[in-house]
Structure formats: structure tokens, C-alpha cells
């Protein structure tokens, strides 16, 4: 939203961007509190009796760490995107790079709900102790750089490296790639913990020699 310039006036408390930032900060605070509680509960399992089997502490610790990494990458992307909504008094008034960049981002519309859907599915699977559906994969990288260069070959040239927002875009790209990589690892960790539904089937064919009626009477 910030990259496409759709957040509204940053000084207006009722603008769409500020309302979304307030909701995001509230969710981020809750996530930090939940992760802290999960780490504490995981540490307590070392002194719990092992009736019914040993608690899979390592798997849960790995899942907590992956979720924490994903949350940090999301926070980094959000913070970097602030660069596109800030005024830059030192920038050249003749420069139109940021306007062109926002226009191309609006054309591409790279917003995706795949990450949110995947995280919701993983959380539901762990909460309800249900196996994951088969062939579940993390969302693939959007390849935003290649798509931008296809529309405008000069938009990411090093000639614009001093432009406001150029470095922020690079940080967002790196953080997005790292987040997707951790999502793939998170899917593997959850699959190892709760299992996976199997849709495989096996056909068993029984071949019997035909017997005529005369043979049966005899």
C-alpha cells in the first residue's frame, strides 16, 4: 500500500495507512507476547513427566524460531516501506523515479494472500492436531525485480541508487526472499510434527482361472 502510494496522508490519523498501521502494531504486540509465552512453556516441558511419551520439544522450538523469524522479516518489510510515504526535502524536484516506481507497482499489484492462508492453515493444523493436506508448499517468490524490468528496463538501474526508496526496495526484496525460505522450513517442521494426509491408493487385481460348468459337476 505504501509502495503504491495508497496509504493516504501520513499526518491524518484517520487515513487508511495509519489505521492499518495501528492494527498491524496491535497484532505485532500480541504475536510477541504469544511467542514469549510459548518459549516459556517449552522450557517448562523439561521437568514434566513423560507419561504417554516424550514431548516433542525440539520440533516445537524449531517452529517457534521459524515463526519468530517470519515475524521479524515482516516487521522489517513494514519498516522499510515507510520510506515511500515520507517526504524527502533533499530529493530533486525534477526526479520522477519514485512516481514511476509507484506507477509500475500499481500495475503489477504484487499483493498476495498466499502467505496469510498458509500460516492460518499451519496454525489450525497444530491447534487441532490435524495432519496437513498433501502437496502443501510455501508461496513462490514473486520475482518482482524481473517483472519491473520487463515494464521499464531502466527503473532499477544503478543510476537511481541515490533515489529515496531505492535502498528500501532492496531491503524489502531480500527480506521477502528470507521470509519465503523460512516459510518452506516451517511447513516441513509442522508436517514432521502433525503428519500429512495420504491420498495414495493401490489397486489389487486378482486373476483366477475360469472354470466351466462341466468341471464343477465333475
Indicate the topology.
Layout: H1 16-44, H2 57-81, H3 97-108, H4 114-128, H5 144-151, H6 166-194, H7 213-217
Helix pairs in contact: 1-2, 2-6, 4-6
**Helix-strand pattern:** HHHHHHH
Structural class: mainly alpha
As a whole number of angstroms, the C-alpha radius of gyration is 26 Å
Separation, N- and C-terminal Cα atoms: 86 Å
Overall geometry comes to globular
Summarize the main sheet: none
Strand content: under 5%
Can you count the helices? Answer: 7
Number of strands: 0
Q: In oligomeric terms, what are we looking at?
A: single chain
Helix percent band = 55-70%
Average pLDDT, to the nearest integer?
77
Model regions low in confidence, pLDDT < 50 over at least 5 residues: none
What's this entry about, in short?
The chain has 218 residues and is mainly α.
Descriptive terms for the model:
single chain, 218 residues, mainly alpha, 7 helices, 56% helix
Task: Describe the structure in your own words.
The protein has 218 residues and is mainly α. Helix content is 56%, strand content 0%. The protein has 7 helices and no strands. The protein has helices spanning 16-44, 57-81, 97-108, 114-128, 144-151, 166-194, 213-217. Helix 1 runs antiparallel to helix 2, helix 2 runs antiparallel to helix 6 and helix 4 runs parallel beside helix 6 (166-194). The longest helix is centred in the first third of the chain and has 29 residues, at 16-44. The protein is globular. The termini are far apart. The model has no long low-confidence stretch (mean pLDDT 77).
Amino acid at each position: 500500500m505504501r509502495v503504491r502510494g495508497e496509504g493516504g496522508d501520513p499526518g491524518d490519523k484517520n487515513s487508511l495507512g495509519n489505521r492499518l498501521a495501528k492494527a498491524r502494531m496491535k497484532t505485532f504486540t500480541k504475536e510477541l507476547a504469544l511467542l514469549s509465552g510459548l518459549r516459556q512453556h517449552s522450557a517448562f516441558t523439561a521437568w514434566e513427566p513423560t507419561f504417554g511419551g516424550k514431548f516433542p520439544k525440539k520440533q516445537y522450538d524449531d517452529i517457534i524460531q521459524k515463526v519468530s523469524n517470519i515475524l521479524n522479516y515482516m516487521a522489517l518489510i513494514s519498516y522499510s516501506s515507510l520510506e515511500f510515504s515520507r517526504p524527502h526535502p533533499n530529493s530533486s524536484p525534477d526526479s520522477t523515479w519514485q512516481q514511476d516506481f509507484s506507477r509500475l507497482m500499481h500495475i503489477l499489484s504484487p499483493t498476495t494472500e498466499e502467505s496469510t492462508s498458509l500460516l492460518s492453515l499451519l496454525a489450525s493444523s497444530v491447534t487441532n492436531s490435524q495432519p496437513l493436506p498433501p502437496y502443501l508448499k510455501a508461496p513462490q517468490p514473486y520475482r518482482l525485480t524481473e517483472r519491473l524490468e520487463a515494464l521499464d528496463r531502466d527503473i532499477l538501474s544503478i543510476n537511481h541508487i541515490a533515489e529515496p526508496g531505492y535502498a528500501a526496495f532492496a531491503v524489502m526484496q531480500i527480506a521477502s526472499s528470507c521470509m519465503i525460505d523460512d516459510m518452506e522450513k516451517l511447513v516441513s517442521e509442522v508436517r514432521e510434527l502433525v503428519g500429512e494426509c495420504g491420498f495414495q491408493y493401490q489397486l489389487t487385481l486378482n486373476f483366477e482361472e475360469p472354470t466351466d460348468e462341466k468341471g464343477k459337476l465333475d
